[in-house]
Amino acid sequence: MAYLTLKDINKIYPNGYHAVHNFNLEIDKGEFIVFVGPSGCGKSTTLRMIAGLEDISNGEFLINGSRANELGPREREVAMVFQSYALYPQMTVFDNIAFGLTLQGVDEEVIEEKVKKTAAILGLTDYLDRLPRALSGGQRQRVAIGRAIIRKVGVFLMDEPLSNLDAKQRVTMRSEIAQIHRETGATTIYVTHDQTEAMTLADRIVVMKDGYVQQIGTPYELYHNPVNVFVAGFIGEPPMNFIRGTVKGGKISFGANTLDLTHKLGNKMRDYEGKEIVFGFRPEAIELGKRDNAYVVSADVELTEMLGDNTNVYITTQEEKAILKVDPHDTPEIDSAIVFSIPYADVYLFDGETEQVIGKVLEKTTK
């Protein structure tokens, strides 16, 4: 296992495109870190700089406290799993997994022992004599992972390894990757655009946008205490609802509706007098009907989506649209009028200009 330090890492291409800006992160031994963000945010570029596949334009990259900027991929002792399986089609599963050890000239008996042990971890024991074309997508990805973990390296890097799998295979492979990490204890950096993968796998998540780090934290921290509108909207499914309003007389005005939070936020509201702020709440935080210590809203139901364990309800209120997540047994009728409550503890407020968090009505304890 290795610990990594990234200090003010930048990637600037010859054409002047600045792909990654001042990336800072310390990764502990055995930690599972996930880089997440939309396409083009710089997460894969950062991973490739860690792997040595991209040069670092500015900044310093340390492995176990030693500068590694100038080291090649092999010298960094990292193993990488790509989005494409990158298996050798003419080689059996056994030979694909053993390939790295074979190149190193490891004794055949040692190779056989390690391949069988790795195959057992990945559930590939019965497939060692097969060619990749005889395997499912999930099985091929397990072979690619096996080829990485069989090597004694300090860091495993995974670049969207599940994106080519169907939904059911992704769920299965997520649990298998988590189990592999528990068994190997390896320092792992995982890149994905799927926030569900990030939330279920990570010890800590790095959220990126346009080459900048937006927030670093545990899944709990990012979900309950997002630092800005982007993180709040990116983490969570369905995403957080946002309604823009203006502060008037210490109250937030949304068209004909007003919300008085001065008794909870005090001077913060007066600081925003006449300014625009963003009111946010998560779809699952609401309760149907009127409740105490809550913002009560009247709305019209436009559409419902039955998902089995819950129903997504699309509503309109004062020309603002939102999504509610309700118990399927309480699913309202389309075109009906409903009343729902947003508990004060689940209200988020963001600066309308900077989109940075102002605060929550009641702070949750960070885990």
Folded structure, characterized:
A hairpin with a 4-residue loop joins β16 and β17. 26% of the residues lie in helices and 34% in strands. The protein contains 10 helices and 21 strands. The protein has helices at residues 43-51, 93-103, 108-122, 137-149, 167-184, 195-201, 219-224, 229-234, 262-265, 267-271, and strands at residues 4-12, 18-27, 32-36, 58-63, 66-67, 78-81, 155-159, 187-192, 204-209, 212-217, 241-248, 251-254, 257-260, 276-281, 287-288, 294-306, 311-317, 320-326, 337-343, 348-351, 357-360. A 6-stranded mixed beta sheet has the order 6-7-8-3-9-10, sandwiched between helices. It has a 6-stranded antiparallel beta sheet with strand order 13-12-11-14-20-21. Strands 15-19-16-17-18 form a 5-stranded antiparallel beta sheet, with no helix packed on it. α2 crosses α3 (108-122) and α2 (93-103) runs parallel beside α4 (137-149). It folds into 2 domains: 4-230, Rossmann fold; 238-360, OB fold (Dihydrolipoamide Acetyltransferase, E2P) (Beta Barrel), CATH 2.40.50. The chain has 367 residues and is an alpha+beta fold. Mean pLDDT is 89; it is low at 362-367.
